[in-house]
Amino acid sequence: MPDYSVPPILQTRDASIGYGAKLILRNLDISIPEACFTVLLGPNGCGKSTLLRALAGLIRPQQGSVLLKGGKISALPRKRLAQHIGLLSQNQSAPEGMTVIDLVRQGRYPHRTLFSRWTKGDDEACDEALEVTDTVDLKDEKFDTLSGGQRQRAWIAMTLAQRTDVLLLDEPTTFLDLSHQIDTLRLARKLVRERGVTVVAVLHDINHAARYADNLVMLKNGAIISEGSPREVLTPDIVKRVFDVDVTIMAEPRSQAPICVPVEDPLT
User: Fold this and answer.
1) Do residues 232 and 258 lie in contact, with contact meaning Cβ atoms separated by under 8 Å?
2) Are 172 and 101 in contact, with CB atoms under 8 Å apart?
3) From CA 239, how far away is CA 41, in angstroms rounded?
4) Is 127 exposed, middle or buried (0-12, 13-18, 19+ CB in 10 A)?
5) What is residue 188's predicted lDDT score, i.e. its pLDDT?
6) How far apart are CA 164 and CA 81, in angstroms?
7) Residue-wise pLDDT tens digits, 11-56
8) From the centroid of its chain, how far is CA 94?
9) Is the CATH number 3.40.50.300 carried by domain 1-84+164-235?
10) For the chain, domain boundaries
11) What is the rounded distance in angstroms from the CA atom of residue 170 to the CA atom of residue 174?
12) What's the predicted TM-score (pTM) here?
């Protein structure tokens, strides 16, 4: 569970973020707890992916700042920032014919110079990433022959090879079947529990978020409506306010995680 007495690893202060003249997020203050699994939830267009890109340093706030361990990320060179924050974006593509191990090795780029030799440390980082993501048996396979779930694990392995403190995942379960969605979320939780990685993900499935995340952030129209543990955030009033849907909240029998069930009129 998040320890809110410890300074956050990532945060925004009075940040207004957007594209050109169009602001998506206004005067945003958010704190991301270290070594926790945080999920961003909200309707389409609320600013989840924009916030993730700002936390990765890809978008500079028009007002305010984004901080990594208390320092402005805008002050860090791009390569140095990539040693601390890994981002898995949507709709990434790999060159035709690239093998899984070649893809994973791309994750070592932030730690290498133009003329540096491949080192034992690079091999160890890649081997560890393959092992954690259960892709060792796939390392010599062509990436474009893999299933959707296998590809997603390979992308995550590449990001893990960066050996960053923070891993940002933009809709990592989209287009995956249920079993691969669960595998991906279990992996995210494993990275937090066993390796102390801070994971921030954009998800659409409220119940998956409630089951696997430590910390939820609910957004609407570019503002934070609620943040905290799943039990604190997932209430009928908050879900109604964010998604305009009436729900009942129940507890899952084994984990006691909240489950969100829409309230339906039996006559409609």
Assistant:
1) no
2) no
3) 10
4) middle
5) 92
6) 9
7) 999 999 998 888 999 999 999 999 999 999 999 999 999 999 999 9
8) 20
9) yes
10) 1-84+164-235, 97-162
11) 9
12) 0.91
